[in-house]
Amino acid sequence: MPQLRAWFSRLFGLVRKNSREAEMAEEMQQHLDLLVERNIADGMSADDARCAALRQFGGIEQIKETAREQRIWRWADEFVQDVRFGARMLWRSPGFSILAILCLTLGIGTNAAVFSWIEGILIRPYPLVAHQDRMFALGGTTRGVAEGNSLSYPDFLDFEKNSTLFESFIVDRIMGTSLSVGDRAERASGGIVSANYFDALGVKPILGRGFRPEEGIGRNAHPVTVISYRTWKDRYNFDPTIIGRTQYLNGVQHTIIGVAPEKFHGTFIGYSFNFWVPTSMQETFDTTGYKLEDRGARWIESYAILKPGVTRQQAQAELNAIAQRLENDYPETNRGHGVELFPLWKTPFNGASAMGSTLGITLAVVFFVLLIACANVSNLLLARSLLRRHEMTMRLALGAGRWRLIKQLFVEGLLLALIASGGGIAVAYWCRNALLLTFPKPSPGIVIDYSGQIDWRVLALSAVICIGSTMLFALMPAIQASHIDLSGALKSEGAGVVGGKGRSRLRSALVLVQVSLSFVLLAGTGLLLQSLNRMRNESPGFSTDVIACGVDLFSAGYKLDRAKIFHTQLLDRVRTLPGIESATLARVVPFTYTVYSSAAIEVDGYQPPPNEQPTVEHNQVAEDYFSTIGIPIVSGREFARADNENAPPVAIINQTMAAKYWPGKNALGQRLKVKDRWMEIVGIAKNANYRDKLEPIAPFFYVPLRQNFGVQNNLLIRTRQSPGAIMNALAGEVHALDPNLAPGVAYPLQLQVDRMSYSQELAVTLVAVFGAMALFLAAIGLYAVMSYSVSQTTRELGMRMALGAGARDILGLVLSRGLRLTIAGIAMGGVTALLLTRLMGNLLYKVSPRDPAAFGLALIILLAVALLACFLPAHRATRVDPVKALRV
Amino acid sequence: MAKEKPDLVYGTLDMLILKALQHGARHGLAIADRIQQMSQDILRVEQGSLYPALYRLEAQGWIKAEWGVSENNRRARYYELTTAGRKQLVAEKDHWSRITRGINLVLSGS
């Protein structure tokens, strides 16, 4: 405790320095006066008494100094001095200060912004949720490989029941649905969650309650819902009596039992949820049937919260053991299936995976921006240290230590960095929602949520960056500045050679670094652009000008029979509309977020390896599907209208499936067993992409819709008309069939295809924006160095001109100096880029990380910018008046 | 008689100052006088050590200072023991007596 008190007292002493100083002086003066009086009383004369007292007392100033050291720390005292002095110096040259602060703000701000995104989107994505550090995503694996698989509900319950290292398990399955309040229906996103959801996450509803344990059990037994704060605000206008009221979700009346806190958006990276319902309501929100008792239906996305002190490895080992037991107990559904715990930032079933690599690359890019900004400020400081050479020399000559000078210059740098950090954090705060700008606009009612978060961790990292960058940019110039040759420097100014060599070499080195870093960024941007272009131009395997449109029968409460009639009639009517080339129905529209049906299959003559349970995804499509969407049938036939429930079951498979299960054979006419039903393969379709263009093409098959009808289907229409015109025409037909119904928004498939490449687009945008910043900063650096070198060599230039060099020669001379520097930088950057771009592998689509076009483009842009940056100083050099230059 | 500097043994000056303040507040000169008088003129405190020591003790929270009026009607800073200072004095006295006993034992051994 006394230690602490002494510390505070000293800190206090630092602040109250002036009054303490006066007090100390007075005290000692009084002491001295007492001694004098005593001496006079002893019979000395006044003068003698004073002298004796002073002798007796000793050196007042020395005593004060020693005493001061007891009160405050010397270094702190000096630090305060340095800060005051530094602030004065910055204030005195505002141009320099502002430029340096802007550069650093750019560098620190971009880093802080990316940190805040990583923190808010990947590391701690769920505000208000306690213990996110112990929270892991739980995903399914097939034969040890995680393919974004889910879990089945019975398996989930077994994991929950048989494990000991976990605090809790939660189910959270995202779903899109319609939310009707009054006569207004809108899209909404929500989660099917286990009853323990809110308790396990430590989130307390601000009104009402969370779910009770019994509400998770049963089939459609508990139509209750907790709504989000936003829904409460937007749809119910903060109605305080909301608890107990009902709303229609997917056409089923649900009682509102709670309102979630304002900051809680659910646990799905990328979407902000509107409501939550318990697992017992699964069937209401899933067109593919009741799954709570089906061990083979893997649909659950879940999280596990570990007990404190348990490592992921231990937890994983326990889960593996349980999965092994399940495999033994239920071989027909569980053979080869396991589970894996993922850190939140690697969650396989939400936006984390797409954002992870993008933000990783972005982090590298903004770090480069920071380095370039630091190099710029370093350069500015070096230039300024030349202006302050006189001051430095004087101080050294008067006895200041070099170390003291370095420290003072460092503190000046720290001041710059501190101001810039303040600005940078403000920038990060403004940019926390900036990522959303690049995202495709979602349907009304759906809220995309990718927001950064500035918490103490982000602030701490920014502080580290602030100090680290000060080390980078201020230390070197400070050391340089303190190495002044005293005798030489005091003699005269303006000789133009003092400190010249070392300093200009250092500055050139800094520019070299800037140019090479810029080159790396430019090359990276080029690669990403190239990749985005390739991806855009690559056909997904179907024609993207087909128009899709759905009618939400499920929400309207249609049952299967009625839906069947409706869709059959609608399709017939649409086909007769003018301007329609062909039309068909499909349960899933490719490249949407709708999940394909997936089923265990058996194949005649194919013996799966012992640990494999072949499971293949498929889509339910009507006749003319392949001709409408433009997927060629390579052999066999396409589905016909006659392939209905009275006809023998048939299927069409893709090329990958044919090659995998019937290698070297003709698959046509062979049989395939799905859900205890044998079907004959009547056609082989060309491979296409089903979800996005980056996916490896897996086995896939199609079954006729008329043999596998579901309530929810989508129209696919090939036409020359615009989506708007189609929608109007459709609205009429739908209305004619059921006056209460309206079609959804019609859109060309291209729209969805573009949406699915958003993570590439985002990466390109981010890297391009930051790359442009870097290029700009590097250009400033190059310009500054060239101007400086021109001003330094005025004498030499004047001499050359006096000896007959023309403007053209001078221009060439200066330009070639600048370009030499640039080319050296590009060479360095080229090598670095070749090493680094390999790390971009998973963001690049069919582009080699060494793509010559991207590197060539970077080369051209950088050369052009360098020429521009060098031209101005070179032009100025030609204006040098030889007479004046030589007289200096 | 030779005057000894009391801070020859590190830290002892602090203890002597605490002791000098045991029976009431004193200003700087009075503390020096008191130590000199109590040691029968053997120990003499230099001002150069006194004030740093006073500020150190104040910073530790063992003594506190207030402006008061001296015997001859001058303003003077009076120092006074705090509760922590009293405890510290006891502790230092104990420590000192153990050390000196130890040293004496060594020196008087044969």
Would you write up a description of this structure?
The complex is a heterodimer of chains A (888) and B (110). Chain A is of the alpha+beta class. In chain A, 52% of the residues lie in helices and 16% in strands. Chain B has 110 residues and is an alpha+beta fold. Chain B has 4 helices and 3 strands, in the order αβααββα. In chain B, β2 and β3 form a beta hairpin. Chain B starts with 11 loop residues before the first helix and ends with a helix. In chain B, strands 1-3-2 form a 3-stranded antiparallel beta sheet. The interface between A and B is medium-sized, with 29 and 24 residues.
Biggest sheet record of chain B: 3 strands, antiparallel
Instruction: Note the overall shape of chain B.
Output: globular
Q: Structural class per helix/strand content of chain B?
A: alpha+beta
The total tally of domains of chain B equals 1
Most extensive interface, chain pair and sizes:
A-B, 29 and 24 residues
What's the total helix number of chain A?
27
Q: What is the count of β-strands of chain A?
A: 24
End-to-end gap of chain A: 66 Å
Low-confidence stretches of chain B: none
Strand order in the largest sheet of chain A: 3-4-10-6-8-7
Mean pLDDT of chain B: 83
Separation of the first and last Cα atoms of chain B: 30 Å
Helix content of chain A: 40-55%
Shape of chain A: globular
Task: Fill in the keyword field for this structure.
heterodimer; A: 888 residues; alpha+beta; 4 domains; 6-stranded mixed beta barrel; 24 strands; B: 110 residues; Arc Repressor Mutant, subunit A; 3-stranded antiparallel beta sheet; 4 helices; 55% helix; globular
Compact overview of the structure:
The complex is a heterodimer of chains A (888) and B (110). Chain A is an alpha+beta fold and 888 residues long.
